[in-house]
């Protein structure tokens, strides 16, 4: 595979997106399919569907090239477009689906960089255990949906204070705060102060956000 890729690049200089090289396995693309994709990227848009030509370019058989392209179409990486004009049928390949997937990958990478990994460490320290993969994803969901790290950590500490160590409880706390429009620790402190005043006669020294 490596030799074929090098020959392609030498013969037709082109820019191969780093996202594709780094993530093609995540997209379900095999090494052999990647070679064909790189070949297709060396052409202009709306690539004439010519398996014989493709096969010669990468020193492969027509049957195998057709099989690879069919597989890429099934994976929604490449699209085979059929058009009729003046009673003639034209077939061409489009890479728009591939570029859309690469765009979404770029957005995901950006999102991951914006997440402060220290939040996960704080959770593990407060809960006294390692987070599960599902819990990691849940915390990421809180962050990417607009909750500040400060608010998430405050919700965590409230849960620990109330003797609850599961993320569903924390999620309900964050939902309650969101409904009330709380965005900072000052908002939370003010609410807690008012709550303490109301409950002072009952000697309640913490806020149960789910059963006010």
- Residue share in β-strands: 5-15%
Major β-sheet profile:
3 strands, antiparallel
SS class: mainly alpha
Q: From the 3D coordinates, which CATH architecture of the largest domain would you assign?
A: Orthogonal Bundle
The beta-strand count equals 3
The number of distinct helices, counting runs of at least 4 residues, comes to 11
Q: How many domain modules?
A: 2
Order of helices and strands: HHHEHHEEHHHHHH
Distance linking N and C termini = 64 Å
Helix content: 55-70%
Q: Return the CATH class of the largest domain.
A: Mainly Alpha
CATH topology of the largest domain: Arc Repressor Mutant, subunit A
* Strands ordered across the widest β-sheet: 1-3-2
Question: Outline, from the CA principal axes?
Answer: elongated
How would you describe what is shown here?
By secondary structure, this protein is mainly alpha-helical. The chain has 2 domains: 2-101, Orthogonal Bundle (Arc Repressor Mutant, subunit A), CATH 1.10.10; 115-202, Orthogonal Bundle (Arc Repressor Mutant, subunit A). 61% of the residues lie in helices and 8% in strands. The protein contains 11 helices and 3 strands. The protein has a 3-stranded antiparallel sheet, with no helix packed on it. A hairpin with a 2-residue loop joins strand 2 (79-85) and strand 3. Helix 4 crosses helix 5 (62-74). The longest helix is centred in the middle third of the chain and has 19 residues, at 96-114. The chain is elongated and about 85 Å long. The protein starts with a helix and ends in a 13-residue tail after the last helix. The mean pLDDT is 82.
């Amino acid at each position: 595979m490596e030799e074929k890729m090098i020959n392609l690049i030498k013969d037709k200089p082109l820019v191969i997106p780093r996202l594709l090289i780094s993530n093609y396995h995540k997209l379900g693309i095999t090494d052999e399919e990647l070679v064909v994709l790189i070949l297709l990227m060396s052409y202009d848009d709306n690539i004439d569907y010519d398996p014989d030509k493709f096969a010669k370019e990468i020193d492969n058989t027509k049957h195998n090239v057709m099989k690879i392209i069919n597989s890429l179409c099934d994976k929604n990486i490449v699209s085979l477009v059929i058009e009729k004009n003046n009673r003639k049928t034209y077939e061409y390949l489009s890479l728009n689906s591939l570029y859309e997937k690469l765009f979404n990958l770029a957005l995901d990478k950006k999102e991951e960089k914006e997440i402060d990994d220290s939040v996960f460490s704080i959770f593990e320290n407060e809960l006294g255990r390692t987070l599960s993969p599902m819990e990691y994803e849940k915390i990421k969901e809180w962050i990417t949906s607009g909750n500040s790290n400060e608010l998430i950590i405050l919700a965590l500490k409230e849960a620990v204070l109330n003797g609850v160590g599961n993320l569903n409880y924390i999620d309900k706390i964050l939902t309650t705060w969101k409904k009330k429009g709380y965005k900072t620790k000052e908002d939370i402190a003010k609410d807690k102060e008012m709550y303490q005043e109301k409950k002072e006669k009952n000697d309640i020294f913490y806020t149960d956000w789910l059963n006010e």
